[in-house]
Design a protein that fits this description.
Length: 244
C-alpha cells in the first residue's frame, strides 16, 4: 500500500517533481472522462467570473493550465505554482494575458487587495484544517473587497465512487465536503455570499463508459448526462466573496 502524502511540505515536494508533472499532464488530459470533468468545471468558473468584471485574476496551483486555458472572462492574470515543470507546460498553452510565477501560495509575492478574483482547483483540499486556515488567510489578503474566490470540493457523500488510492493524486491527502460543511468552513474564514454548486452527476456511469469510447457525440451526451440533477453529485464548485 502506498503511504499517504500529507502536510504542506510533503505535498509541495511531491508536485514539484518533474515526473509527477509529466504524469499529471498525460493523465488529466488523457481520458474522455477527465476532459468532460475539466470542461464542466471551467465553464462554471468562467460563468462566475463573468459576473465580476474581472480585471486581474489569480490562479493558485495553476499546474499545467488544465482549467486556465479554458477561461475567458478576465483581462489579465497571474498563475502560480511551486512546480517549474508544470509551469513550463502551462506556458505552452496559455495566451499573452497570463503571467506565470513559481512561488508558495502560503506566502504570495503580491500586494494587499490586488486581485478581483482567485481561482484554485484540485489544490486547497489537499491541506489539513490548520493549513487551510493559513492558506485562505493569505488568499484573502491579496483579494480586493468584494472579490470572488472560486474553488472545487469533492463530495463526502459519494466516496464509494472514488478512484483507487494509487497513481497521481491517489495517495495524496484530500478532505471531502458536504454543501453544509463547505459553506460553514468558508464562512469561518470570514467569506460572505458563499454558494455551493453541484458540478458533476452520474460520475460512476460516465467514468465507466467514457473509458470504453471516444468521439464528439459521446462527449456531448456525457456532458448532458452530467448536468441532470439526479442522485448526488461527485463534486462541487464553491464561490464566495471577501467581505467589503
Amino acid at each position: 500500500m502506498v503511504a499517504e502524502i500529507h502536510g504542506k511540505d510533503q505535498i509541495m515536494r511531491y508536485y514539484s517533481r518533474p515526473d509527477v508533472a509529466e504524469e499529471y499532464q498525460q493523465l488529466r488530459g488523457g481520458s474522455l472522462f477527465r476532459q468532460i470533468r475539466t470542461t464542466i468545471h471551467a465553464e462554471k468558473i468562467d460563468e462566475l467570473l463573468a459576473g465580476q468584471k474581472v480585471k486581474k485574476l489569480l490562479e493558485v496551483g495553476v499546474g499545467t493550465a488544465r482549467i486556465s486555458r479554458k477561461l475567458r472572462n478576465f483581462k489579465g492574470a497571474w498563475g502560480i505554482d511551486t512546480s517549474v515543470a508544470m509551469l513550463n507546460e502551462a506556458r505552452k498553452v496559455l495566451d499573452a494575458r497570463w503571467k506565470l510565477k513559481k512561488c508558495d501560495a502560503f506566502h504570495l509575492p503580491f500586494e494587499d487587495n490586488e486581485f478581483d478574483a482567485i481561482v484554485s482547483t484540485r489544490f486547497t483540499w489537499h491541506f489539513n484544517k490548520k493549513e487551510r486556515a493559513k492558506l485562505f488567510e493569505e488568499l484573502q489578503r491579496v483579494m480586493r473587497p468584494g472579490a470572488i474566490i472560486i474553488t472545487d470540493a469533492l463530495n463526502a457523500e459519494v466516496e464509494r465512487y472514488g478512484f483507487k488510492k494509487t497513481g497521481i493524486n491517489g495517495n495524496v491527502f484530500a478532505v471531502k465536503y458536504t454543501p453544509e460543511t463547505a459553506e460553514a468552513e468558508f464562512r469561518s474564514y470570514g467569506f460572505s455570499d458563499v454558494r455551493v454548486f453541484p458540478a458533476m452527476y452520474f460520475f460512476g456511469v460516465i467514468k465507466a463508459f467514457s473509458e470504453r469510447g471516444r468521439g464528439t457525440y459521446l462527449k456531448s451526451a456525457f456532458r448532458i448526462l452530467s448536468k441532470l440533477p439526479l442522485g448526488k453529485p461527485y463534486d462541487y464548485i464553491i464561490a464566495a466573496k471577501k467581505t467589503s
